[in-house]
Specification:
The chain is mainly α. It contains eight helices and five strands. It has a domain of 108 residues. It is elongated, with a radius of gyration of 19 Å.
Length: 173
């Protein structure tokens, strides 16, 4: 997968092999995973392990379960279930406290506006703190992550977004 090792995902070799089989047959899924790695990196904390590892493990489990009922393609199932854990991006706050001319200012990462990896590189002295995410639902977080990382045609298909159609507006209507 574009020279990404299984250790970048924080998953076992067996799960990485399973993931690699899935990704090799689907360029959109490869693009998606590369975009996710670029966006959140492999260090963002999840509940017990890095969030990326938890998302991949969850999605692979759902793909295996989906094969029993065969309601979705493997790649669609993987993407939709991977994104369901995106709400965890809002449960942690990434903050940095750079010192500038005897001033301390707290700078925090805003989810999905800039990549975590860019923030971590810009502010090497950063930390993750627990954060209460009252303002976003799991569905909204999933759609935001998908919109940020999926190719448009895949996002439109999975989230059933209809293309904008121009319609004439008549007076009195």
């Amino acid at each position: 997968m574009n020279n990404i090792s299984f250790s970048a995902f924080g998953i076992s070799r067996r799960r990485f092999t399973e993931l690699n089989r899935l990704v090799c047959s689907n360029l959109d899924l490869r693009f998606f995973l590369n975009s996710v790695i670029t966006l959140i990196g492999s260090n963002f904390p999840g509940k017990e392990r890095p969030l990326l590892a938890e998302m991949v493990e969850h999605a692979l489990f759902c793909v295996r379960e989906n094969r029993k009922v065969n309601t979705l393609t493997d790649s669609d199932c993987f993407i939709l279930n991977f994104c369901t854990l995106a709400v965890r991006l809002y449960e942690k706050k990434l903050v940095a406290v750079p010192e500038r001319e005897n001033q301390k200012a707290t700078i925090s990462w805003t989810p999905l506006t800039t990549s975590v990896t860019d923030f971590e590189n810009k502010y090497p002295d950063h930390e993750y703190i627990d954060w209460e995410c009252n303002g976003i639902s799991a569905e909204s977080a999933a759609a935001l992550l998908a919109a940020r990382t999926l190719p448009v045609h895949v996002f439109s298909k999975l989230y059933q977004i209809k293309p904008y159609e121009h319609s004439e507006i008549t007076e009195g209507a």
